[in-house]
Amino acid sequence: MSIAVNPPPSLRSFPISRSPITRSPRVTMVLRSSPPAALPILTKLQNDCATPLPLLRNIADAMAVEMRAGLAVDGGSDLKMILSYVDFLPTGNERGLFYALDLGGTNFRVLRTQLGGRDERVIATEFEQVSIPQDLMCGTSEELFDFIASALAKFVKKEGGKFILPNGRSRETGFTFSFPVKQTSIDSGILIKWTKGFSVSGTPGKDIVVCLNEAMGRQGLDMRVSALVNDTVATLAGARYWDNDVMVAVILGTGTNACYVESVEAIPKLQGHKSSSGKTIINTEWGAFSNGLPLTEYDREMDAESINPGEQLFEKTISGMYLGEIVRRVLVRMAETGSLFGKHIPEKLQTPFALGTPNISSMQQDTSEDLEAVGSILYEVTGVDSNLDVRKMVVEVCDTIAKRGGRLAGAGIVGILQKMEQDSKGVVFGKRMVVAMDGGLYEHYPQYKRYLKEAVAEILGPELSSHVVIEHSKDGSGIGAALLAATNSIFEH
Ligand SMILES: Nc1ncnc2c1ncn2[C@@H]1O[C@H](COP(=O)(O)OP(=O)(O)O)[C@@H](O)[C@H]1O
Ligand SMILES: O=P(O)(O)OC[C@H]1O[C@@H](O)[C@H](O)[C@@H](O)[C@@H]1O
Fold it and tell me: In terms of domain of life, where is this protein from (predicted)?
């Protein structure tokens, strides 16, 4: 087979993505021979998803503007900019046995940790993780909280070994709740709305600590919630325990969000709440951001058919619950009008969320000559065989959606850093600044992570980006919540 060195005019103008398998001219050859009707669909997708530097700068600037608006007055912005009431971060002196509950968009975890103070730090930690049953995501509030409380009760029963509850103390837990909650104190908060795949009836508007306490009461479990935190806030606390330069935490998992350390005097809407440290953590709830996003017809259709239409547009463009679904929708279009899979449209491919982000991530890790992993994933999802042309086309679509997501996430991070820099009058960028990252999407999708980091470096430039460290803080939200439970323990003082 001759290798095309100079692609035909039809291909010259269209940007080939930079993922590993598309570097060789072979792809040009293959794409040229792909189903001709599918190519214009890919070209249009890549144009509509393009994130050139000026667009990323606008996103970063808009994020900073929306942050200020959300801090000025409640409802002032798409970004809720929620006060966390976390005014003190773990010092390393925390001691004792503490629990953590972590309810995310896909998984639920229970964790306990035995803390030994500054010398011993974390003596022991153990946790159990379960996937959240789909029916509980759309059941009743009592069913969900009973599920959580019974899992915790079972876990407490297995307590032993290095985990010792000091005499005279009752068990305390941190509660990481990965949904938008209007905190009313460090250990109370009202659920604003469900996001991701949750639509549990009866919970929005309720204090979720009260819901949990009632459920623990039904289990006969004597446990006090001493800190209610968002998973970004817990991640920041967990990362800060080991590194004092951590100032921002970002979750890219099923959903997405970011929090950061803010000065109290930069929060006009802060009425009455005093923080003797002069600092507090703000949960931005940035998933609701929507300014200037490069959205496609596929995004709009997915949003219209979602359980929260018109909401969480940034989250729907960059986070794990949605990337695979967007790719699926593109492939359906390519099958319908681009005869991607020949004459018929695979029945299975038409099921919403049949293609998950783990699938598209796995396809992009396939560096084999004939992409057999891509072929088997496509067969599993569509039920039809695919030739090499089709597989390369599919990987191009995956890379386009992952690239847009990663680069927009990077722009969001720069927006937060820019806001902090503007307020600090040059302190932020003048020194080492750590952004703690977590979430299954960030952890398990190498190309996405690379696109994110490249975008931060591109927007900030070499000088400023040399001070910014973007590091993975694995499962920080679990230990972080336990640490905040310790920091806010009623027995500590
Ligand atoms: N191998 C993978 N590649 C890309 N994304 C993944 C992979 N595995 C999981 N994910 C994404 O991570 C999400 C789970 O994130 P995680 O942080 O573990 O849980 P939660 O969202 O419940 O906090 C999944 O919904 C999925 O979108
Ligand atoms: O850890 P997850 O499930 O990916 O959640 C990340 C974010 O998901 C968003 O939908 C929530 O509004 C945030 O509060 C949360 O932090």
Answer: Eukaryota
